[in-house]
Amino acid sequence: xxxxxxxxxxxxxxxxxxxxxxxxxxxxxxxxxxxxxxxxxxxxxxxxxxxxxxxxxxxxxxxxxxxxxxxxxxxxxxxxxxxxxxxxxxxxxxxxx
Length: 97
What we know:
Layout: H1 18-41, H2 68-87
């Protein structure tokens, strides 16, 4: 039995600006595209169901075509990461170009 107890920084008091929320969406889409790119390079293709034997995955499609709950999961994970960065003291903002 392990004594390991995960510690998650409390981000409940961190609110994202509109700009940061947009960043979360962009990161979510990029993360999905990286996942899909790796699978496709490994010979996988889009199929009706996930099959290791047939190398099919129903998520190998553009982010906008994913089921809403999958999109929201990607966005949630990116949002958590951004909020943690802010909580750790990092500045998360778009630089002027």
